[in-house]
Amino acid sequence: MQDKARIHVQAGAGGNGCLSFRREAHVPRGGPDGGDGGRGGDVVLVCDDSMRDLESFRRRSHFKARRGGHGQGSLRHGADGETLQFAVPPGTEVRDADTGEIVGEMIQPDATLLVAKGGRGGRGNQHFATPTHQSPREWEPGEAGEERRLELVLKLIADVGLLGEPNAGKSTLLSVISAARPKIADYPFTTLEPHLGVVGLSDHRSFVVADIPGIIEGAHAGKGLGLRFLQHVERTRAVAVLVPVDSPDPQATYDLLRSEAAAYSKELAAKPHVVVLTKADLQTPHDARRTPLRTDGAPVLEISAVTKQGIPQLLEVLWKTLKS
């Protein structure tokens, strides 16, 4: 999944003003009649909900709008340059590649964002005429359009993000509660890109769940695949922290996941979360006697994606968490 791209945008330059004098039979001293140059075209991003990633920017990374037309005689102004628009998927964050400053975010379909402004057209010599300077030969060149390098970062828009170590059962859970079909296997890091699934409940209720690759210790610093994909749970409204019941130390696993989220983003760590003990069908009597997890008040539910144990209860708790 292409979720990052760097592009170069350049707005159109303004057209030059015109140096011209009126030439007409029987009209001596016709005076200056140079028209103004047209304004350069802007560069605008448009949010297109039919796009799913930034793959199209692999093939094209330079975008240049047209310049404005030059002014002409007889007070004819140059045409404005046409605005250059190109589409990005919902959830795209736009940053200045040089300063890191956030230029804007594309969330709502059909929303627009001006990223480079066209240059102003130059004035023709008509503007420089005065009572004492009736034959001006001054005119202005058009201004250059804005030029900048941008970084596009796609952050999937979902309601609930699934956070867990490799092989915690995230993909299996997503396949059970939605129509999504992520790759499922018995080895780590089978999920190499985020997946979204729509969960349908009774009374026409629904929410979107995002499954991201497994998180390991040091993910916030770039280890494994976590750093690249933690961005996709930043926009979620709630997080489901998945801890397998057959983990050697479930408390340590939970604490690791929470600390990695906090190290990556304080805002992510502050989101409401639900603790999901997965693979309950593998639980032994010894597991059942373990000390309950310390979760800072977050609800804890045991589920089995294989037997569907606890799945309805989990979905209702997630819905109540989102509503609150």
Structural notes for this entry:
With 324 residues, the protein is α/β, with parallel strands linked by helices. 15% of the residues lie in helices and 23% in strands. The longest helix has 15 residues, at 250-264. Mean pLDDT is 86; it is low at 187-191 and 219-226.
Walk me through the topology.
Elements: E1 4-10, E2 43-47, E3 62-64, E4 84-88, E5 92-96, E6 102-106, E7 112-116, E8 147-154, E9 160-164, H1 170-177, E10 195-200, E11 206-211, H2 226-229, E12 238-244, H3 250-264, H4 266-270, E13 273-278, H5 285-288, E14 300-302, H6 311-323
Parallel strand pairs: 1-3, 2-4, 9-11, 9-12, 12-13, 13-14
Antiparallel strand pairs: 1-8, 2-7, 5-6, 5-8, 10-11
Keywords:
single chain; 324 residues; alpha/beta; 6-stranded mixed beta sheet; 5-stranded mixed beta sheet
Short description:
The protein has 324 residues and is of the alpha/beta class. It has six helices and 14 strands.
Oligomer: single chain
Query: What can be said about the biggest beta sheet?
Result: 6 strands, mixed
Distance between the termini: 32 Å
Mean pLDDT, all residues: 86
SSE-based structural type: alpha/beta
Question: What strand line-up does the widest sheet have?
Answer: 10-11-9-12-13-14
Strand content: 15-25%
Give Rg in angstroms. 29 Å
Individual helix count: 6
State the share of residues found in helices, binned by percent: 10-25%
Number of beta strands:
14
Query: What global shape is seen?
Result: rod-shaped
The H/E string reads EEEEEEEEEHEEHEHHEHEH
